[in-house]
Amino acid sequence: MIPVLAFDIETIPDIEGLRRLHGLDLSVPDVQVAEMAFQRRRQQSGSDFLPLHLHRVVVISCALRDRDSFRVWSLGPGEDEAELVRRFFEGIEKYTPQLVSWNGSGFDLPVLHYRGLIHGVQAPRYWDLGDEDRDFKWNNYISRYHTRHLDLMDLLALYQPRANVPLDELAQLLGLPGKLGLEGGAVWDAYRRGEGEAVRRYCEADVLNTYLVFLRFQLMRGVLDRVRYQAECALVRSTLERSTESHWAEFLARWGAEV
Fold it and tell me: What are the extents of the domains in the chain?
């Protein structure tokens, strides 16, 4: 069985990078640096969503299915960004998993690419296009239509941006909890308030929704039959039931029966 690693990231504005690009010193508070960047972006595009190279990663949440086990955990918050990015790519070096994401091609991975480049992170297995392993020529992490990285949002929309749908809404239609706690736009404010653990819990709920949508996708395409699908969901439930964390109790309470 090839390990499956669903992942999701949460980011905040790269204050240090913004200072460097705009010649701002430490006399300008972080919140003003961010607001200046948001205003500039709104003038350019009508949205305050910053360009991907100006996001700093604060949490990477992972759901790993390997052999007989399943677990969910996070890198961060409160850790050095370079260390977060390095450990994420080290996991790919160790397991060579199938990566699963929701909009990972459009956001999460490009952000990790830029941040890895900035921090000098090495990830030869991830970037292999077949030079070292011939199997990667036909199925690698980088090519859009390969499945070593499966961006569920992109594939289900048949690679048509106008057909994309929000993970939260689709998850709820499948009887899954959807988002818990924060909204994506509230991460920066929560992080500034020192609520890094709330950001982590929010990210972990997103990655688990992503993994459960992936299981339903595997059922739809015939990789899992009904019995196997229900067994995989039962494994996730039993994992959450053993946890003492409150967000998993809420997740279970809001998770409907498998269809």
Answer: 4-254
Q: Which fold has domain 4-254?
A: Nucleotidyltransferase; domain 5 (3.30.420)
DSSP state, residue 53: G
Q: How far apart are CA 80 and CA 83, in angstroms?
A: 5
**Tell me, what's the pLDDT at 218?**
98
Q: Which residues of 34-59 are buried (b: 16+ CB within 10 A; e: fewer)?
A: beebbeebeeeeeebebebebbbbbb
Q: What is the pLDDT of residue 184?
A: 58
pLDDT at 259: 53
**Which tokens hold the place of 181?**
């706690």
Residue spans of the chain under pLDDT 50: none
Cis peptide before 161 (omega within 30 of 0): no
Q: Which tokens sit at 174?
A: 């499948």
Full DSSP string of 157-194: TTT-GGG---HHHHHHHTT-----S--GGGHHHHHHTT
Cα–Cα distance between 8 and 214 in angstroms, integer? 14
